[in-house]
Design brief:
With 133 residues, the chain is mainly β. The protein contains one helix and nine strands; from the N terminus they run αβββββββββ. A hairpin with a 2-residue loop joins strand 2 and strand 3.
Length: 133
């Protein structure tokens, strides 16, 4: 999988928080709170992989976790009345270690097992919203 196309500064501008970086710069971890919810967004740029986790502010366990591969890019959409991140051409996978290989050792995206070619939009302003386009 090629390295993810994204601009870290645009993600910082959209979310309004600085990322925590792991010791070996393996991932960028953003933690964003709004409206009684906490969104944790982890970007693994060398794997082109993103993980979202949503928590209630009163809980330490997520009620929703989604992991997907981005085959295109992360695009910042900054409009007068909204701000969002668009994740283009995604494949929803089971977790970070999703690897499924066929007989020839090639990575396969079996459409019966993985939802493919999705565009996902995360809106953070004026309210937190997640939608599949």
């Amino acid at each position: 999988m090629p390295q993810l196309k994204w601009n870290e500064y645009e993600v910082i501008e959209c979310l309004g928080v600085l990322p925590e970086q792991e010791e070996f710069f393996e991932s960028h971890h953003f933690k964003f709170a709004k409206g009684g919810l906490i969104l944790e967004l982890t970007i693994y740029e060398y794997e082109s992989l993103i993980t979202f986790s949503l928590f209630k502010q009163t809980s330490n366990k997520p009620f929703l976790t989604l992991t997907f591969i981005i085959r295109d890019e992360i695009k910042f959409i900054n409009e007068k009345d909204s701000a969002s991140l668009l994740f283009k051409n995604c494949i929803l996978v089971s977790d970070r270690f999703w690897m499924y290989q066929g007989n020839e050792g090639k990575d396969l995206f079996d459409k019966t097992k993985f939802a493919t070619e999705l565009d996902i939009e995360l809106t953070v302003y004026p309210h937190l919203e997640f939608k599949v386009i």
